[in-house]
Amino acid sequence: DQELLQHMEETFETIQEDYQKLSYVSESLQADSQTKQKTIEVGMLLKSLERLQKEKVDEKNMLAATDMKADKAALASKLDCTQFEEKMEGLKGRMRKMQGQVSAQKQQCNELQEKLSDMMENKMDRRELKYFQKHLEESWNKSLEELENRIIGDSAAGMRKQLPVPFTCLSCDRMVKMQVPG
């Protein structure tokens, strides 16, 4: 048993040593693989960079081409001479129409101003208005006095009043034929 145990321990130790060696080799292989992968990636990037530098367009040529295209697009959107003249004639016509409307409104304003001036001239000033008010008050007072005199004068005793014909009964509103005085 002892020998078997010792043999197993020796085998176990050799396996452990082999494991450590394999582990070290594996780590070194992984590190080498990573460095080689980085080298490959850098190499590919350098190759693509060289290819792009060979194939790239000159910046000045590109700007000149875009300017030329922009000029062609601007030229296409511009009007030709006949279209410009037509547009200007239309604009002149609209301006004439607006001037006619403005002059018509100005004429209406002038007429209104003349009417207002005439009305202001015909309007009474304060002195005339006071005289008119005084005249109205006097005639009103005279009319009131005459009315009072008629009412007071008619109510005197012994005065004969003319009764309206036809005469109606006060109690039944029936028409009564009477001779005055009666």
From TrEMBL:
Q: What keywords tag this UniProt record? A: Coiled coil
Q: Which Pfam families match?
A: DUF4795
Instruction: Provide the coiled-coil residue spans.
Output: 49-122
- Give residue ranges for domain DUF4795: 1-181
Does the UniProt entry include the keyword Protein biosynthesis?
no
Q: What name goes with this protein?
A: QRIC2 protein
Keyword Coiled coil present in the record's keywords: the answer is yes
Q: Which organism is it from?
A: Pitta sordida
Organism superkingdom: Eukaryota
